[in-house]
Amino acid sequence: MRLAQIAAELDLQPRSAQASLERAVTGGHVGDLLSAVMAQAKPGQVWVTVQVHPNIVAVAVLLGLAGIIVAANGEPEAGTLARAEAEGVPILCTGLGAFEVAGRLYELGVR
Amino acid sequence: MRCAGPGDDAERRVSETAAPELVMGYPVLGGAFLMAGRAAIGVKQALEAAGLEQGLVRRAGICAYEAEMNIVIYGRSGTLTVELYPTEVRIIAQDRGPGIPDVAEALRPGFSTASEKVRGLGFGAGMGLPNMQRHADRLHIETVLGMGTRVVMHFTRQAREDDAAGADCGGA
Asked: What is the ipTM, given to two decimal places?
């Protein structure tokens, strides 16, 4: 499944690197503790978090993640979006909570 | 304090006396959370450019990131250096900082002295050094209170099971 399809199905708001929304998503990871994400998330996954600071972009780049979904009405900092744009990391925002985003992704077949 | 993982002493001596094929250094500034992660990304990109296997690059990237974050969180300044040898990759994190009073305790998963502010950003959960220990083939820590800490992480340039798998490094 492509990130763009997920964005459409969950009504996510793309906020950066929209040229990269055609990336394939191979799974998902939910978490806000960056070291736990570093240890457990895998390349190609979409990451659901409530963290909004610029370091989430570094985590996504280092892990080769497909993109980041910022849940629960989180508003990425300007520095986060600028860095995401520069690194080509799609950030998508939603008012849905992380639990619901994960459930919806699972229903879509992102496992 | 020296904390060694699995490894062969003879091989280590040979590797450590050879000149590295490549040395790249990246500055890290303590407290600079907005810039944090750039050094680790530089390390990862250097290893990718050198054509190293994907799994090793991933493990080294995780370790470089954790080491960089420790300098950002605890140090005043420091450097990440990546050295490429015929038989191994070495990442050296050197900082000017407070030093680690009890290395064994710092290696215990969940132990952290990070501030509440830092924890609120998702750092300082006591997983940094354990993550480094898990993903490096060997880890050495030298620390002097009031002066700083030097962490040397070794990655053997031959396929580990998770290198061959390419991506799966498991949880800490």
From this structure: 0.89
